Amino acid sequence: MQRVTNCVLKHKEKLLLLQKPSRNWWVAPGGKMEPGESVRDAVIREFREETGLVIKNPAIRGIFTFLIMDGEKTISEWMMFTFQASEWEGTLLDESPEGNLMWHSAESVTALDMAEGDQRIFEHVLTNNGVLYGTFRYSEDYQLLSCELDNDQAERDEA
Predict the structure, then answer these.
(1) Contact 80, 46 (CB under 8 A)
(2) Which string of DSSP letters, residue by residue, matches 74-121?
(3) For residue 72, with 0-12 CB atoms within 10 Å meaning exposed, 13-18 middle and 19 or more buried, which class applies?
(4) pLDDT, tens digit, 9 for 90 and up, residues 44-85
(5) Which of 11, 23, 54, 115 has the most CB atoms in a 10 Å sphere around its CB?
(6) CA-CA distance, 115 to 124, in Å (whole number)?
(7) Does residue 91 fall inside a structural domain?
(8) Stretch 121-142: mean pLDDT, rounded?
């Protein structure tokens, strides 16, 4: 199972996003973890490699399982650890090796072209506290088939 990390960097109601050339979808910068690497170290490294920025104090905001399905058969599975940060140092790359970098207003983010599951993750990060847990099932052509989401903040609010 592949493990990936990403980070939503928010500054003055804007988010730094990366447009991947394969589908032209917008994503939070991040990537694959290396063997033996902690999720925190991975998100800092991957974010730096893709943006030139070193994020400070990343906080975990989501832990997700993604399944690519062919009918009832799982053909690919990975886990994603989503962080949020608002502080960084360094200089933003003019060109990322992974695609186009651009700051977007928080209110416009979920209207951008992206995976449907990513829209739900961004909605959580922008409007809720706590950690969101979820499982997303996609078809081979990345159509969302189903998702189950659970926000730990809802449990605390009810207590």
Answers:
(1) no
(2) EEEEEEEEEEEESEEEE---SSBTTBEEEEEEGGGGGGSS--HHHHHH
(3) exposed
(4) 999 999 999 999 999 999 999 999 999 999 999 999 999 999
(5) 115
(6) 15
(7) yes
(8) 95
Which CATH number does the domain housing residue 51 bear?
3.90.79.10
| Residue 97: half-sphere exposure toward Cβ, Cα within 13 Å | 8
Hunting for tokens 């974010």 — which residue is that? 47
Task: Say how far apart CA 82 and CA 75 lie, in whole Å.
Answer: 23
Place of tokens 């990936």: 4
Domain for residue 86, yes or no?
yes
Instruction: With 0.90 as the threshold, say if the pTM is over it.
Output: yes
Residue 138 three-state SS: strand
Number of Cβ within a 10 Å radius of residue 77 = 13
Q: Which residue has the tokens 């400070």?
A: 56
